[in-house]
User: Which sequence fits this backbone?
């Protein structure tokens, strides 16, 4: 018996269309077909076979920070991602270097969920 991999990350969002625009335009994620649940939401592709599931109608506050609740996406070219964020006017924390040599940039989605863009060490 073993765990195979992370299947998906689910985030509770207030406004699904607003969040979809962010994840499509800012993070450049492809939207996936979603089953006909009885509640609003959207699914996006993360990497080769992981997914991001947005669940609508969030009423509670989000608690998220770079040293707290967040998720990280491995990226190919952090310089290009920083230029992309600057071009779109998206706020992000200045690049950090982890003790193992990996680079990190942190930003937040429209609901305040913290997202880390990182490189391998």
Assistant:
């Amino acid at each position: 018996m073993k765990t195979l991999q992370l299947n998906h990350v689910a985030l509770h969002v207030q406004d699904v269309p607003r969040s979809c625009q962010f994840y499509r335009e800012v993070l450049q994620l492809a939207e996936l077909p979603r089953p006909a649940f009885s509640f609003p939401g959207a699914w996006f592709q993360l990497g080769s076979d992981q997914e991001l599931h947005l669940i609508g109608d969030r009423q509670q506050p989000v608690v998220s920070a770079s040293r707290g609740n967040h998720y990280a996406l491995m990226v190919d070219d952090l310089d290009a991602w920083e230029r992309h964020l600057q071009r779109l006017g998206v706020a992000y924390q200045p690049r950090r270097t982890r003790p193992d040599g990996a680079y990190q940039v942190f930003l937040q989605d429209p609901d305040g969920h913290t997202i880390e863009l990182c490189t391998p060490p």
